[in-house]
């Protein structure tokens, strides 16, 4: 059961080998965070909006079953076919079946982190279906055979030069081109051809409305609409927590989502889908994939409130300096670090430790998820379940033994200070991670307790 | 008013001058201060590493040292927050009592004692590092993520110090990257965060970096020293007791 939990840390070491790139990554995301700050500061009722959203989501978490059943009834009445998937495998098989039924071998897909979570692209590719991602950032990372590094800005880890190189290789653009206008035009022509020739289109779901049986997809590029409107079959993939009770609640979430994500007042496109157009098929695949398990964990159920704005990633000082790929999970950053252990504790035992628990994530969260408290709680669960490295457990037990005993503590302190003063080489070496980039504190001759006894005690 | 002075383990061992300044400051403002001699550690290093279940001994030792005081005061936001949120024990009644009576030094001075003047002089440019656990955990200062009126208890106190020039940082409440055992388990990110934090202060020409948490300051000091910088760190208690 014991296994090393240092994957994130190792990936972060690699990422930090190129410091100018880390600086650029950090500054780019901090720019988005400050843009978000300016946008939310213009809404005097911002904190009340967050509270309203949080309470609507609390209601959703407590009434999940009824709301989903209500949604299904209304969606069916609208002519949408509703599918239920217990896990990623079922989700993938249902979508594959729908593509086969349509007699297609190609599909266009707008952004859906759920399909990333279920590894849909890999599955379909293995079954001979070609999938083209139509979100520009996703298309770029897809060409590079990389996963997205951010849920809202999937290619945020890449520079214009990286994109130029990628397009040169895959779209035949001029070598060394970095002009955004030129590169965007190349992507536009490439995607236009895709939209016009695909019979099946898949979109994600940002909000599904129980009351109406319709759903809303938010994009800045209009790519979801282009795919869905031109295709004969529109498949929407949705994690079941995306449900909201009533259409009137959309106003709360649409105001929060884009401001938190990018500092925009609203996404450029907020497309409402209620029924298929004549001759079109519309399907929605509602996925559990561990969500009901998370709903059943009182300490972690709040994580299902997430509306995937990525504000927690942009503000996270660790994410900004380790990059999205270091989280080795479809959803990176602080929110990903509390969602991922639910999917696989062993694989993701390192993620709740990839945080200083600074708490910034919880405060930017538009639906008030207690992210940093959940990180702390996951640490307790993971170590108690035995997912910590054996050496760590041994050293923590030793530490606890010393620190709980005043006598041992004082002895260890004296020895430690002595070693630092008279034989600093024992800690000032390459085996001490602190010393790698930092000097050790200067040890004083006496502890405060010694001073207190000598100077204050009568 | 009987105040129990809680000096976190690493301050006791490595920064006794911070503890001495805290004691002097509390006595100067009229508190009857007692330092329980058998105190060790709050248990946070284990708890934040996922081993809260090993902190029972630290908890019981803490309770036996600090039960019965009117207030418990500590020059560390982080350790104070840990006790406030996670102290439990064999004597749960005493533990509950302690959780409600523990204060970080600056919140004790501003909220309980309501200090409005201080005899202190510090004629230097100072940058304040708002440590996260104090700021976001104990609400010592407003956080930049919220849409709410600004305030800061440490700034309120630093403004009482004669000739002190407080500089504004570009990122006013970014984490320094210390994070307890994070500073060694995630050394690459931790050190990078520290370097960036220090750079923000240096860009504004500070002579000193101060804060309410010695752990953050120890980390920043390590980075400053490695860079051979003349800029020094001082805990806020040292500045609030400074005279010339």
Kindly describe this structure.
The complex is a heterodimer of chains A (458) and B (244). Chain A has 458 residues and is of the alpha/beta class. Among the domains of chain A are: 43-289, Rossmann fold (3-Layer(aba) Sandwich); 396-455, no CATH class. Helices cover 52% and strands 10% of the residues of chain A. In chain A, a hairpin with a 4-residue loop joins strand 5 (207-209) and strand 6. In chain A, helix 3 crosses helix 12 and helix 9 packs across helix 10 (180-197). Chain A is globular and about 90 Å long. The model of chain A is unreliable at 1-5 (pLDDT under 50). Chain B is of the alpha/beta class and 244 residues long. Chain B is built from 13 helices and eight strands. The chains are: A alpha/beta (458), B alpha/beta (244). Chains A and B meet through helix 1, helix 2, helix 15, helix 17 and helix 18 of A and helix 1, helix 2, helix 3, helix 4 and helix 8 of B. Chain A: This is Lactate utilization protein. Chain A: GO terms for molecular function: 4 iron, 4 sulfur cluster binding; metal ion binding. Chain A: One of its GO terms (biological process) is lactate metabolic process.
């Amino acid at each position: 059961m014991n296994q090393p939990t240092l994957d994130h840390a190792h990936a972060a070491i690699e990422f930090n080998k190129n410091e100018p790139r880390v600086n650029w990554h950090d500054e780019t995301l901090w720019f988005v965070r400050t843009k978000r700050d300016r946008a939310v500061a213009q809404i005097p009722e911002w904190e009340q909006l967050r509270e309203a959203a949080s309470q609507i989501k609390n209601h959703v978490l407590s009434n999940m079953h009824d709301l989903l059943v209500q949604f299904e009834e209304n969606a069916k009445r609208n002519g949408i076919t509703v599918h239920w998937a217990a896990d990623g495998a079922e989700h993938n098989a249902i979508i594959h079946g729908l593509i086969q039924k349509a007699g297609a071998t190609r599909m266009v897909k707008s952004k859906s982190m759920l399909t990333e979570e279920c590894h849909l692209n890999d599955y379909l590719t293995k079954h001979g279906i070609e999938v083209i991602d139509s979100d520009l950032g996703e298309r770029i990372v897809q060409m590079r055979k990389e996963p997205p590094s951010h849920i809202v800005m999937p290619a945020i880890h890449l520079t214009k030069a990286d994109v130029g190189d990628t397009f040169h290789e895959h779209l035949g653009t001029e070598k060394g081109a970095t002009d955004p206008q030129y590169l965007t035009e190349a992507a536009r022509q490439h995607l236009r051809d895709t939209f016009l020739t695909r019979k099946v289109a898949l979109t994600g779901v940002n909000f599904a409305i129980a009351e109406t049986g319709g759903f809303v997809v938010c994009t800045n590029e209009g790519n979801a609409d282009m795919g869905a409107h031109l295709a004969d079959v529109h498949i929407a993939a949705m994690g079941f927590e995306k449900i909201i009770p009533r259409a009137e609640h959309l106003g709360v979430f649409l105001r929060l989502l884009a401001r938190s994500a990018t500092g925009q007042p609203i996404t450029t496109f907020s497309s409402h889908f209620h029924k298929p157009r004549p001759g079109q098929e519309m399907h929605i695949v509602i996925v559990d994939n561990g969500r009901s398990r998370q709903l059943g964990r009182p300490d972690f159920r709040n994580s299902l409130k997430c509306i995937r704005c990525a504000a927690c990633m942009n503000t996270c000082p660790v994410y900004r300096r380790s990059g999205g790929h270091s989280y080795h999970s479809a959803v990176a950053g602080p929110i990903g670090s509390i969602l991922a252990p639910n999917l696989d504790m062993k694989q993701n035992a390192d993620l709740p430790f990839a945080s200083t628990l600074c708490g910034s994530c919880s405060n930017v969260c538009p639906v008030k998820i207690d992210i940093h408290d959940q990180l702390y709680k996951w640490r307790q669960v993971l170590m108690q379940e035995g997912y910590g490295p054996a050496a760590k457990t041994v050293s923590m037990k030793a530490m606890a033994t010393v620190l709980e005993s005043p006598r041992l503590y004082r002895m260890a302190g004296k020895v430690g200070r002595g070693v630092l003063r008279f034989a600093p080489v024992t800690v000032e070496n390459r085996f001490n991670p602190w010393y790698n980039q930092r000097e050790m504190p200067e040890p004083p001759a006496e502890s405060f307790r010694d001073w207190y006894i000598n100077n204050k005690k009568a | 008013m009987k105040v129990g002075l809680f000096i976190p383990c690493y301050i006791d061992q490595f920064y006794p001058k911070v503890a001495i300044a805290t004691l002097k400051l509390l006595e100067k403002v009229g508190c009857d201060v007692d330092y329980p001699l058998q105190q060790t550690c709050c248990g946070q290093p284990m708890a934040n590493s996922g081993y809260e279940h090993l902190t029972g001994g630290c908890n019981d030792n803490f309770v036996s040292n600090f039960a019965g005081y009117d207030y418990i005061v500590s020059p560390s936001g982080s350790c104070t927050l840990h006790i406030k949120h996670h102290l439990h024990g064999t004597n749960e009644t005493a533990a509950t009592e302690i959780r409600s009576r523990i204060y970080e030094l600056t919140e004790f001075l501003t909220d309980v004692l309501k200090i409005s003047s201080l005899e202190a002089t510090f004629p230097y440019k100072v940058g304040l590092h708002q440590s996260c656990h104090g700021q976001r955990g104990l609400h010592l200062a407003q956080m930049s993520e919220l849409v709410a009126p600004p305030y800061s208890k440490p700034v309120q106190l630093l403004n009482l110090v004669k000739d002190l020039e407080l500089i504004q940082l570009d990122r006013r409440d970014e984490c320094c990257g210390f994070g307890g055992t994070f500073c060694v388990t995630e050394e690459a990110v931790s050190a990078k965060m520290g370097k960036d934090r220090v750079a923000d202060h240096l860009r504004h020409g500070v002579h000193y970096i101060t804060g309410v948490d010695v752990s953050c300051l120890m980390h920043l000091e390590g980075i400053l020293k490695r860079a051979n910088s003349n800029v020094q760190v001082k805990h806020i208690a040292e500045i609030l007791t400074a005279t010339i």
